[in-house]
Amino acid sequence: MSLLRCFKPVPRAFYTLTSINNYHTGIQTVCMAGHNRWSKIKRPKAIADLERSKELSKFSKEIQTAIKVEGDSNPETNKRLAAIVLRARSANVSKTGIERAIESGIKKLKSQDTHIYEAKGPSGYAMIIEAETSEKERTKGELKKILSRQGGSLSEPKTMLFLFDQKGFVMVSKDSLTEDCDLLEVAIEIGAEDVKEELNSEEAEEEDEVCFVCESKDLESVKAAAEEKELEVTQSYISYVPHTVTNLSPSDIGNAKVMLTKLNEHPQVIRVHTNIEK
């Protein structure tokens, strides 16, 4: 019996084959093709998957925060949530991912509380970390690890808060304002104490927004007054504004950016406020 008959042929329907004749034995060697192609595409695919995961995580946190702050999980009535959902779709976040984020936001609305953690950076700058969690001590431990790896540390309660004032921020779409309107007059009419047009990324989720600043206790009344004037309020929240700012060297700024990025990536963190000079 020929030795070649001992080998069953591999169906061509299932594999792409490359045949190499072995002249010493007369046996046909079968080599699978395709593995090299996968090795070339798996790394770019892994990088793309990681970027999509980061985008989903970022928008999930924003969606959950919008539900928590506004107390409403319906995009039709929660304008802030609607704006975030629209941006998520533009960034190719899947419909399933958005729906899961909304469901998670509803659950957190019922089960989690907002906690404040105070911290100090390696160059002496102050941080106020807002987090939503049902496990305060566990979250505290996780934040402590992030801070210590970058040379920072958690502070005792009320040791950093005195460096900040709480202010209310009411964000209004520029499209709802007339071109010739005086923003300072509008601010006075709705009960705000200041207005800001040039906003940084921490203050504005959209570029076409104007921010009216007020005392934290007046936030709801200013928001209501803005809506009565038929201004489109995209979001409203209370934030921490430093009394004085800390200037950092270029190297310290780089370290601070890494730390703030790590803190903001934590799933329970809503916002991180600092007194670093912008």
Automatic annotation (TrEMBL):
Residues 115-276 form the TACO1/YebC-like second and third domain. GO terms for cellular component: mitochondrion. It comes from the Eukaryota. Gene3D superfamilies: 1.10.10.200, 3.30.70.980. Residues 36-105 form the TACO1/YebC-like N-terminal domain. InterPro entries: Integrase-like_N, TACO1_YebC-like_2nd/3rd_dom, TACO1_YebC_N, Transcrip_reg_TACO1-like, Transcrip_reg_TACO1-like_dom3, YebC-like. Pfam families: TACO1_YebC_N (PF20772), Transcrip_reg (PF01709). Belongs to the TACO1 family. This is Uncharacterized protein. The gene is 100638466.
